[in-house]
């Protein structure tokens, strides 16, 4: 609460003066680039830097008011109906990477640009832009992402993939509640993927307790064990040793 209340001020900053002529131009450029992106899917990354710059200007200048919208998010919903996440990724690239880096990002694509942002945020003015841009040009996207992850965490990451499946609106409350509960048990730093794995492991363990497959039960219990912090792992092993003796 202290952090939130400290942001409240009696005299909030005045919004910037609305420039209608510039708003018409910028909104037109955004629609032009998005239309171009649909026509030239294979070449879309060459204009993402320009798109990011215009999106940031729309937010700062409140150009969304030209279309009688309530907020910037509503503007993004119209331009990015499938997902606003990409728009925010592009804006983070524009806001966090130095100008000399943004000029060269057209060569590596916006997906690698997102990874560069992670390093730039951590290192600030010490960000070794030239070295990481060179790696981005030379390495495939997944390899580059692993290299960035290793740089940030100090450890190798295991292979991963994104899985898509359809859920009905009526199913979402139960699934979200289950993932939220798992996150409370595992810790808020765990990803939703870890939480889903924990839920599935729990199901498999319960399904195989009575006359089930012992191998599946062992697999589930092993995954549960891996979720435990270091001290709890040692305590668990000590108890097993005591019972075994």
What report would you give on this structure?
The protein is mostly helical and 245 residues long. The protein folds into three domains: 15-96, no CATH class; 109-156; 169-234. Helix content is 66%, strand content 0%. It contains 13 helices and no strands. The protein has helices spanning 2-5, 20-39, 48-61, 72-79, 85-96, 99-104, 110-123, 129-138, 141-153, 172-186, 192-207, 214-227, 230-244. Helix 2 (20-39) runs antiparallel to helix 3, helix 3 (48-61) packs across helix 5 (85-96) and helix 5 packs across helix 7. The longest helix has 20 residues, at 20-39. Mean pLDDT is 78; it is low at 1-9.
* Domains, number: 3
* Biggest beta sheet summary: none
Succession of helices and strands? HHHHHHHHHHHHH
Radius of gyration over C-alpha positions, nearest whole angstrom = 24 Å
* First-last Cα distance: 51 Å
Treating each run of at least 4 consecutive H or I residues as one helix, how many helices? 13
Structural class: mainly alpha
Unreliable spans are: 1-9
Helicity level, as a percent range? 55-70%
Round the mean pLDDT to the nearest integer and report it.
Answer: 78
Number of distinct beta strands = 0
Beta-strand residue fraction: under 5%
What spatial form do the alpha-carbon principal axes imply? elongated
In short:
The protein is mainly alpha-helical and 245 residues long.
What are the main properties of this structure?
disordered N terminus; 13 helices; 245 residues; 3 domains; mainly alpha
Write the layout of secondary structure elements.
Layout: H1 2-5, H2 20-39, H3 48-61, H4 72-79, H5 85-96, H6 99-104, H7 110-123, H8 129-138, H9 141-153, H10 172-186, H11 192-207, H12 214-227, H13 230-244
């Amino acid at each position: 609460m202290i952090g939130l209340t400290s942001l409240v001020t009696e005299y909030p900053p005045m919004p910037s003066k609305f420039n209608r002529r510039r708003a018409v131009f910028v909104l037109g450029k955004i629609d032009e680039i998005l239309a171009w992106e649909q026509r030239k899917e294979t070449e879309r990354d060459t204009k993402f830097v320009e798109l990011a710059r215009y999106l940031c200007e729309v937010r700062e200048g409140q150009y969304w008011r030209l279309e009688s919208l309530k907020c910037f998010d509503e503007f993004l919903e119209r331009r990015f109906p499938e997902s606003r996440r990409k728009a925010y990724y592009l804006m983070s690239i524009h806001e966090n990477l130095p100008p000399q880096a943004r000029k060269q990002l057209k060569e590596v694509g916006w997906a690698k640009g997102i990874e560069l942002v992670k390093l730039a945020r951590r290192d600030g003015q010490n960000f070794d832009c030239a070295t990481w841009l060179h790696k981005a040009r030379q390495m495939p996207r997944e390899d580059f992402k692993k290299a960035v992850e290793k740089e940030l965490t100090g450890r190798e990451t295991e292979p991963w993939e994104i899985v898509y499946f359809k859920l009905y609106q009526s199913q979402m409350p139960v699934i979200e509640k289950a993932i939220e509960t798992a996150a409370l048990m595992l810790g808020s730093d765990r990803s939703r993927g870890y939480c889903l794995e924990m839920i599935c492991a729990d199901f498999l363990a319960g399904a195989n307790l009575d006359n089930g497959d012992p191998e599946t039960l062992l697999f589930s219990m092993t995954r549960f064990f891996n979720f435990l912090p270091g001290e709890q792992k040692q305590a668990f092993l000590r108890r097993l040793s005591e019972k075994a003796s």
